[in-house]
Amino acid sequence: YVSVFGAVRTAPEVHFAVAGMSMVQSADEVSYHMIEAGYAALKLRKGRTEPVTPAPKKQAAEEALLSPPKVTAAAVEAPAPAETKERLSGSGLKKAVLKYLKKEGEGRAEGLSLAAVCKHAEATPADDVAAALQKLVEAGEAYTTIDEEHFLPL
């Protein structure tokens, strides 16, 4: 027998991604796991219960003692400056690309094209974006779909 741990992933199809595996040393490990799994199932079925003595609501009492806010002239806010795209690199670029893949790739079976990802990170050179995507694929955080230039996150 072996003991494995990992995570359930739903893309590209439902599967269990094993992160580690070891040999079971004794039958006690199997028994302990069965007890632990049963206990976790019971806790999930029971749900959350409210504490017997709830915490007092101090904030409402403090607000009652305060005087009402004084009326002041409304300050005119300056319009927000247009966002300027900055050049990303390294882990910041990988995080931004992965976030974009998750946001825009949802519901697209074909994934996002390399050109679309490059357009999103317009201040960053296309070679750097392609390298970041390749690193995400190698790390198992993204995969190619219909060809080598379409990607989806895992």
UniProtKB/TrEMBL annotation:
It holds the Pfam family RPA_C. It comes from the Eukaryota. Residues 78-149 form the Replication protein A C-terminal domain. This is Replication protein A C-terminal domain-containing protein. It comes from Alexandrium catenella (Red tide dinoflagellate).
